[in-house]
Each structure stands twice: as C-alpha cells, then as structure tokens.
Amino acid sequence: MQTHxxxxxxxxxxxxxxxxxxxALEKAGVTGFTVLPVLGGSGRSGRWTRDGQVGRAGMxxxxxLVRPERLDGLLDAAFAxxxxxxxxxxxxxxxxxxxxxx
Amino acid sequence: MQTHxxxxxxxxxxxxxxxxxxxALEKAGVTGFTVLPVLGGSGRSGRWTRDGQVGRAGMxxxxxLVRPERLDGLLDAAFAxxxxxxxxxxxxxxxxxxxxxx
Amino acid sequence: MQTHxxxxxxxxxxxxxxxxxxxALEKAGVTGFTVLPVLGGSGRSGRWTRDGQVGRAGMxxxxxLVRPERLDGLLDAAFAxxxxxxxxxxxxxxxxxxxxxx
Amino acid sequence: MSDLFRLAADNLLSxxxxxxxxxLLAALARSELTVPEAAAKAISLYLLFSIxxxxxxxxxxxxxxxxLLAALAxxxxxxxxxxxxxFALLRFMTRLGRVDAAAVAAHxxxxxxxxxxxxxxxxxDRGITAEGYxxxxxxxxxxxxxxxxxxxxxxxxxxxxMDGDLWREILLNGSIVLLVGSFVIGMLTGAxxxxxxxxxxxxxxxxxxxxxxxxxxxxxxxxxxxARGVLGAGALCFGVIMPPIGAATGLAAGLLLGLSPxxxxxxxxxxxxxxxxxxxxxxxxxxxxxxxxVYLTLSLGVTFPFNLVVGIPLYxxxxxxxxxx
Amino acid sequence: MSDLFRLAADNLLSxxxxxxxxxLLAALARSELTVPEAAAKAISLYLLFSIxxxxxxxxxxxxxxxxLLAALAxxxxxxxxxxxxxFALLRFMTRLGRVDAAAVAAHxxxxxxxxxxxxxxxxxDRGITAEGYxxxxxxxxxxxxxxxxxxxxxxxxxxxxMDGDLWREILLNGSIVLLVGSFVIGMLTGAxxxxxxxxxxxxxxxxxxxxxxxxxxxxxxxxxxxARGVLGAGALCFGVIMPPIGAATGLAAGLLLGLSPxxxxxxxxxxxxxxxxxxxxxxxxxxxxxxxxVYLTLSLGVTFPFNLVVGIPLYxxxxxxxxxx
Amino acid sequence: MSDLFRLAADNLLSxxxxxxxxxLLAALARSELTVPEAAAKAISLYLLFSIxxxxxxxxxxxxxxxxLLAALAxxxxxxxxxxxxxFALLRFMTRLGRVDAAAVAAHxxxxxxxxxxxxxxxxxDRGITAEGYxxxxxxxxxxxxxxxxxxxxxxxxxxxxMDGDLWREILLNGSIVLLVGSFVIGMLTGAxxxxxxxxxxxxxxxxxxxxxxxxxxxxxxxxxxxARGVLGAGALCFGVIMPPIGAATGLAAGLLLGLSPxxxxxxxxxxxxxxxxxxxxxxxxxxxxxxxxVYLTLSLGVTFPFNLVVGIPLYxxxxxxxxxx
Lengths: 102, 102, 102, 325, 325, 325
Ligand SMILES: Nc1ncnc2c1ncn2[C@@H]1O[C@H](COP(=O)(O)O)[C@@H](O)[C@H]1O
Ligand SMILES: Nc1ncnc2c1ncn2[C@@H]1O[C@H](COP(=O)(O)O)[C@@H](O)[C@H]1O
Ligand SMILES: Nc1ncnc2c1ncn2[C@@H]1O[C@H](COP(=O)(O)O)[C@@H](O)[C@H]1O
Ligand code: NA
Ligand code: NA
Ligand code: NA
Known about the structure:
The complex is a heterohexamer, with 3 copies of chain A and 3 copies of chain D.
Chain A: E1 4-14, H1 18-27, E2 33-37, E3 40-43, E4 46-49, E5 59-66, H2 71-82, E6 87-96
Antiparallel strand pairs in A: 1-5, 1-6, 2-5, 3-4
Chain D: H1 2-6, H2 12-28, H3 37-62, H4 65-93, H5 98-109, H6 113-126, H7 134-140, H8 144-155, H9 164-171, H10 174-201, H11 205-226, H12 233-257, H13 261-272, H14 278-286, H15 292-322
Helix pairs in contact in D: 2-11, 2-15, 3-10, 3-11, 4-5, 4-7, 4-8, 4-12, 5-8, 5-15, 6-13, 6-15, 7-10, 11-15, 12-13, 12-15, 13-15
C-alpha cells in the first residue's frame, strides 16, 4: 500500500488552552487534528487526576498529522501558545495513507 | 531489556465503523488492538466535538501494534474499510517488549 | 525550532495496576507521564469494552516521554510491574521541545 | 413585569422551548456550556425507558388487541413511504445529489423520539389521553425509512452497503431495543409495576426532558455554527415544509385507524419528525458519501425546532379539531 | 391478554428480573444498547449511598447495641470461611487449577451489593422489616474472603502479591467506604436527616435499581458472549450450587444471632451472593495469573442471575418460615 | 446512643458537612472512591439549573423592580473591590509574589456557587426566605473580580493576556449562562413552570447537593494531599480570615440595600466565598505563571470547608440578628 512520509505531533496541554491552540494551528495552515481526553498525569507541576472535577480542569492531548514541510510552521504556532503553559510537545516520524488529506 | 521491531498503526475513524474495522483487522490476522476515545477534531469534513451527543456520533482511535511483516495485510484490511469513510491512518516504527504477543 | 531526541513509551495496562505502575515509574526517576482512558480492546485474553462497567475494570494507556538515557531504567521498572499482567509496551523514537522538562 | 412575561408561558411547551432556546443561544454565542456526553446518553436512556414503560403500562390498563397491530402496520407503511415523498421534494426543491437526497429522505421517514416525548408531555399537560401503544408505533417507524432510502440511493448506482451487520444494527439499535423492551415490561407489570417506579419515571420526567432539550439546543447550535452555508434556501424550505406534509399523512392514517385525538396528534408528530440519532449512524455506514452536515443540520437545526415551536401545537390543534373523540 | 401477562408481575422482583433480562437479551442479540460507564458508576454510587444511609437511619431509630457487633463478627467469619468451602467444592467439581479456584472462591466469600440491594427492596415491597445494620454487615463481608483466597493460592506457591498498598485498596475500596460512610452519616442524622433527603434516596430508589439491573444484564450478556466455552459443566454447576450452600450457612448464622426474618433473609443473600466489582479488581492485582473470564462469568453471568430469579425468593421464603419473628 | 449522636445533626447543614467530611476523609486515606467526571459535571448542571430556575420563579411571584438592579450593582462593585482587599492582605500576610497574589485575589472576589447553594438550602431548611434575585447577583459577581485581578497583576508587568476570546469565555462561562438562563426561564414561566418541574428541581435537590458535597470533599482531599507544603502559615491564615472580612462587606452592602435577613445572609456568603471553577480556568489562560496549587488549595481546601462549617451558620446568625426583617 502506498504510504507517504509525515510527522505526528502530540501536544498535551491544559484544557482551557485547547481552543487557543487549535485556533493557532488552523492559522498555521494545519488542516486537521484530533483531540483525545486525558485522565490524569504527572509533571513538574505535580500529580493530577480528572475524577470528580467540574470545571474545564485537566488536560487534553491534541494530535496532528502533517506533511514534513509544514512541521516548522506548526511547531512555531504551537510553541507560541504552549510556551507559558503547562504541557509537553513530542514529534514522531510516521507514514500516512492518502497523503492528499494532509 | 530485549525489544523487537514492530509497527504502531493508529486509525482514527468514525465510531459507527469501529465494529467493521476491528472485524476486518481480526480477519487479517491482527491479534490485538486498543480503542481510545476521541473528544473532537477537525478535518476536511469540518470541526466536531463529542459534548452532549447522544448517538454513536464521533470518532474513535484504534491502535494496533503488529510485527512488520503483518503490516501490509493490516493496511489492506483497514484501507478497505476506511476508504470511503471519514478518518486517517498513520504508521510509526516502534519497538515492543514481549514479541511473542504480536 | 530546537528539538531534542527522546523516547515515547506507551504502556497499555489494566486499570487496577495503574497506581503501581506510576509509582514504579516515579521510583525509576521518570519525571512525567500522562494517562489516557481506553474504551476497549482485544488481545490474548479476548475482547473487552468499558461500557456499563462499574469497578476499576478496563485498561488505561500510560505515555511517558523520556530522555534516551533514561529508557532502560524506565523499561526495567515498567516490566517488573507489567510482567505478570495483561498489557503491552511500545517504544517510539521522538523529538521533544523544551528538553529541560524530561 | 412578570404578568407580561408570563403570557409566554402558559404551558409546558413554552418551558420546553425556552430550555431549547437557552441551549441554542448559548452555543451560538460560543459559550463553553456543555453537557457531558455520558450525561446526555444517560438522560436519553431514562427518557426512552420511561416513555416505553408508561406506554406499556397504559396498554396493560386499557387493552390493545387488533388496534395495536393496525397502528403498527400503518406506522411501518408511513415510514416506508415518507422517504419517497421527501426524496421527490428534495430533488425538486434543492440541488442535492441523489445520495445526499436519499440520506436526508431516510431521516424524514424515520422519527425523532425527543419530539415524540415532548408531544406526549404536552398532551399529558393538556389532559388529552392517547393510545399507550403509540410508543410501539414510534419504535416500528424507526427503521423502514432506511430501507427505502437505500433503495433510492442504489437506483442511481450509489453503491450503498447493506450487509447483515447493518440490518442487525438498524433493527437492534439502542433506542428501538430500549423502547420495545420497556414497553413490554410495562405491559407485563402493568399498573402495579408503574406504581413501584412512578416516582422515578413519572414525577421527574418533565424536568429531565427540559434538561435534555437544553442539551439538544447546545448540540443544534454548535451544529448550525459549524454548518453555516451548508444548506441552500431550497433545503431550508424543505426543512419546514416537509414536517407539515408528513403530519398530513399521519393525520390521514390516524383518522383511518380511528385513533383518539391524542393518538392522531402523536402519529402526526411521528410522521412530521426527523431522526437525528439512529438514522445518521446508519447513513454513515451505508451511505458514507452523503454529507453528514446536510442531514444533521436539516434534522436537528431546522426541523426539530420547527416541530417544537410550530409543529406540535399545530398538530395537536388539528388532531383535536378533526378527530372528535 | 393483559391479565395473563400480569400474573408474571405481582411484585417488584419480577420487574427487576425483567429489566435484567432485557439487558441480557439485548447484549446476547448484539444490540449496541449501552449504558455509559460514567452513568453506571454514578448509579452505583447512588445505590450505595442510599442503602447505607437508610441502614444507618434505621439503626438510629431502633438502636443496635450488641446485636450489631455480633452480626458484624458473624459476617466476617462467614466471609473468611466461605472461600474455603467454595475452594474445596471447586477443586472437587471442576478442573480449575489452584490459583483460578482460589480466585473464584474469593468472589463467593465476598458479597454482591446489587443482589443485597435488590433483596432489600423486595423485603420493603413485601412489608418485611430487617435490621438496619445489615448494610454494615454487607460492608464487613467484602474483604475477609480475599485474605482467605490469597492464603489458599499461596499454599500452592501461587505467589500472590499481598503488599500494604493492596491492603489499603481492599479495605478502603470505594464501595466499603461509601457504604460505611453513609451508614455512619445516616446513624448520626437519623430520621431528621432521612426526611431531608428522602425524596432523593427513597422515592426514586426502585426505579434507579431497575435501570441499574438493565445495565447489569447488558454487562453480563456481553461477558457471556465473550466467554462462551470458558466454563465447563462443572463450573456452571458450581455457580448454581454454591449460592444455596452459602445461603444455608447464612441461615444458620442468622438463626444463631436471633435476627428477624428479614435480617436472616439478608444474611442468606449476602452469603449466597458473589462479588463482581471489588474482588475482581483485587484479584487482578494479587492473582494476575488467574483467568478473569472464569470468575467474572461465574459471578456475573451465572450466580447473579440465579440469585435474582431463584435465590432471593427462596431465601426470603425459607427465612420467613424458619425465623418466626 | 442514638440520642447523643443525633445532637450533631439537628439541621441540614450537619448533613451537608458530614457528606463533605466523608469525601475528605476518603481522599486523605487514599481510598479509590471517586465520582466520575461526567457525573460531577451533570450534578453541577442540575444544581445551577435548579437554583437559577427557582430564583427566577420567586422573582416572578414576588416581583423585583429596582431592588434587583441595585443588588446587581452592589454585587458587581463588591466583586471588583474585594480582590483589591484580598491582594493587600495577601501581600501583607504571605510571601506570595504579585502574580500569585493577584490570582488568589481573583478567586476571593468571585464566588463559589456550591457555597451559595448550600446556604440557600440552609435558609429554606430554617424557614428563612430570601430575595429570589440573589441568584442573579451570584451570577453578576462571578466575573468582575477577574478584571481587578488582571489589573493588579499587570501593574507589576505580569503580562496578563486579556484578549477578546478571554472576555467571551469569562462572561459566557457555563455557570453564568446556565444560572442567568434558567433564572430568566424561571421568571418567564413563574409558578406554573415551577409546578411542572418541581418534582425534579425541588424535591430531590438537597439529596443531590449532599452527593455533590461528597465529591467536593473527594476533590478537596486529593488536592490537599497533593499540595502538602504548598501553603505557608500566612496563606492558611488568609484562607480563614478573608471570608469573614468579605462577609462583613457583604453585610454592609446588604444592610444598605435593605435586603431581607435571608438576602443579607446570602450576600455575605457570596462575598465570603471563593471561586473554584470559573476563576481557576480563567487564571490558567490569563495568568499562566501563577501557581494553580496555591489558589486551588486555598479556595477548595481551606476557604470552602471553613465557610461550610463555620461561615454559613455565622453569617446566617449575624444577618438574622442585624437585618431585622
Ligand atoms: N515526560 C512526560 N511524559 C508524558 N507526559 C508528560 C511528561 N511531562 C509532563 N507530562 C504531561 O504534561 C502535564 C503537565 O506537565 P508539567 O507542565 O511538567 O506539570 C503532566 O500532568 C502530564 O500529563
Ligand atoms: N491531519 C490530521 N491529523 C490528525 N487528525 C486528523 C487529521 N485529519 C483528520 N483528522 C481526524 O479525522 C477526522 C476526520 O477527518 P476528515 O475526514 O478529514 O474530516 C477529523 O475530525 C480528525 O479527528
Ligand atoms: N497488538 C496489540 N496492539 C494494540 N493493543 C494491544 C495489542 N495486544 C493487546 N493489546 C491491548 O492490551 C490488552 C490486553 O492484551 P492481552 O494481554 O493480549 O489480552 C488488550 O485488550 C488491548 O487493549
Ligand atoms: Na418522520
Ligand atoms: Na457470598
Ligand atoms: Na467572594
């Protein structure tokens, strides 16, 4: 099956920043992303869990598949939002089917 | 620790197709997969979110770890299901512990 | 944008073992991890789904981003916990922003 | 002040509409007010269980015999036929292609259980009784429309995928199973059963319905925001013209069957309403090339509010006028 | 028609059974009807809080003194001893290995809170009173069985992992904490407290229980579908023979304690029922080599329905016959 | 025995406190008892809808005219001013930096809706009436404090990010929209509307509140466990000194406005309470450098329990003494 090189960027970020992050991604020309729920985690700001919370507490994971040439624009956009916020960004090489979608 | 090469395939697909996709995977000899919930996302068919939905709306992420030699069978099976549906497929190189499981 | 090599370890494990796994990770010097919910899956112990369950049934996905030199310690710690339990471990090469966090 | 305002609110329907409108406005204003998915699903399970059970208990009390079967048959026929009507209208009024038109048609042949539940509550509120088995008719009308629509799509080579799995999914979809199941339980346990759980399924019912309509407003509003420009003027027109047409067929069938005024009103509501849960899922599987924005926006964003605000009072008024008890 | 049907439904139990059966059939027919996990958990929290509180309030009203302690002690002893009995039976009747048999035995020594809740509702329904502190006995019986079972497993070198964390998890598991906590709150606030929240924890209780049993049926049905062939004939037999044996020990203990007929019935139910929430989680941690399909299928797919349909009416009948108030 | 215990429980507040304490203890003992996120959110939606609706219906019944506007204005002023007071105190009593102090100050200028809801229930329980529009005042007090706090932070170059999106998020946050929306619906539909859904929003209200307080205890306890050592003695002191100071300003305002004793008590509660839902989310966006452990622990782990146990009875006592009806 024909596959194409791409990058998988995974951004774990505070839920209240989700809207700003995805807006920035769209502005940077990212055509698609997927948001996964996060149950809990641990990092420099300590341990947390989603159970029983009411507000827009917690974090979400935003996954973007992009063509390699779009990566830098995406990272700049994401970084500008994430910079001062709790969260992590990781980038993996991947292959995708149907490259015309990215 | 002894690790083994494998492929991690991530398929993001409409929830109503989940059963058909996993059935096709099983038919293609895929011995295991994991289904993650998806909160929302954006793509060619626009933005969506799971909040407040009632039906089997939305999407799920299906993750399969397979031996490299099984990849093509898996992709063929997945593609046959995904082809006409909303969704994306990405493949990453990975290493796994306990290769006998895959 | 400046990125740094790292490893992304994804451990899918039974929910009742989550606390033990994360405790072991912390002991092994892992400074951060993220826990994602899992809806269902299939493996050697058969098919399962989270729907309608009440207890701490089901599985979770624990994701750790670590510096490459920490990987072995992490895998040893994780393996000791996962060994006799239902679950899978995969490792991917990745790049991260803000390496000082890992 | 209060007197003037209260004019708007002389009945349950106003309350229901206000809750829907609150949700709609909140979503259109991009408030982050949301109902968790699990809560919305739980509420819909509650509504289905409750309405099914009460229908069954009412049949146990008043009997049903042949009338039940006749009404079921009428419902099935309506559900088969309405998509043909809708499809013809759509091809005439809009620029939708065959597949999209067939998908939309499936929604209008099938039914919206929330519209039905709201209408039931409005009847209770006004003291109008209806046949308890109308809930079984509702269940019977969910699926046949899908068959008609897939036939319409396939005539143009639309390549619908109708396999055994899909049949099972459609016929055993959650709402049909729960409606029919609780209807049967209600029939088996009758008034005694109802008594035992009335403080759960009767007393809080209208309040729960209001919260659910709030969520429907939120979902509809978010859908409308995302789908701006998806519907042309023709499609919008269809969304408000098809319900009264459907209601007219329901009226005819109801009068033929000799239903009570309440029963006629409910059959009109069923025929007039458009599915937004079961059929969309079936369409994603069977007609993946149809654009979901079109049918969801029409069903949830146009026809549902139309039926809530204009339709239900209209259908009830017509039914009570014509079907003299 | 309705008369004939209604014979089946002269009591709450029929209603409860019907709801369970609906879920079971839906799952076996592979309907996609599901209750969201969060909703199922919320309902179980509600049931635990309600049953605990009502038990405590009843103790506040009628007093408890030494009888409470004696009943607690009896419950703990039963929970310790029943796994030994179950283990012996399992090794005799089935081909299960030591570890699997120990894991199953743990479930039968512990209790199923839903079976208990259903039995309580049945007693209320029939106007039979029971000691309020039976809910505390239920909490006390959750954990000891696990200790016995781990001892059984370790005798064969099964290498169970019993660390401090596991102790804490077992003793402070959600249902024990909530049951005991709300029991204490009920005891402290008494009838006045109960009055204040009765329209929440008393009035809708039976209806909520019915919905929960529907979910239990769905989960049990999906489990049975996935576990076809996991249980041999011997294990199936065990699943229906062990409950009456357990009930007999509960009967003996109840008569010795001089409990009321209702209390005896509840102690029988506790001894007869098998855990399907707390113990499975503990077994996954402590006996990872035991096959979860075996114990879950037995507990939820065989013994739970057996107790619901046959057990509860049997135990109540025996208890009221022998424990003349 | 029961007599002695029941002394503790002569009112609803004791019941509410006991539920909170149960959750707190369970979390501190690291029990795995948890309320699913979706259930907690659904309960909070219920409480907001219910309290808003009842407030609106009460205004429809008793009228409001100018008094409503005056109270709204007073609330807005309090919400703007209280953060300045809190900020000064924090800089004096603690070693918190400007940004952290400003973030904490925002929480104390804003309000905690659960504290308000509990106080309302306590008033109902004691038969003390209050102005229905106090719920609108509660909504009006949510946001202004954020503005003051961002101004305080920016004076030191804290670089807060106050953009249009943030404005919308703050002003249209879920709880404001639902409170105001259901208040308006309650006003429009009046007593008739309330009647229709009273068995949903009135009868079970106190029980649902108890379950929610259990969850609050769990969340607070987990927060305290994770935040050990985050708060110095000064901050802890602030957490119990600020509420009475806030209450005093609320008292003054309430007396000036000529509110009923119940209304004065509620305004005191609003001024004394600290936000733990809306403001934390806003702070994460606007003041990302502020440490969330500090403000969440203070608000939810210190001030909320203080108000529940000491504050509410104190404020009600003072209000009924001074605001002779
Ligand atoms: N090394 C890591 N691997 C995976 N997730 C992480 C890691 N570090 C932080 N996170 C996630 O990011 C959140 C915030 O991290 P921090 O800003 O370090 O507190 C944590 O709660 C985790 O969910
Ligand atoms: N580039 C992408 N990266 C990650 N997820 C994507 C991407 N494109 C699409 N998706 C996901 O797939 C769904 C359907 O995509 P589409 O068919 O393009 O509308 C979206 O709602 C996203 O959840
Ligand atoms: N090859 C695989 N790829 C992805 N997930 C897997 C795989 N094998 C097992 N899993 C996950 O791990 C769980 C337990 O696997 P097992 O121990 O093989 O039953 C399954 O239910 C899946 O969620
Ligand atoms: Na219709
Ligand atoms: Na037992
Ligand atoms: Na305040």
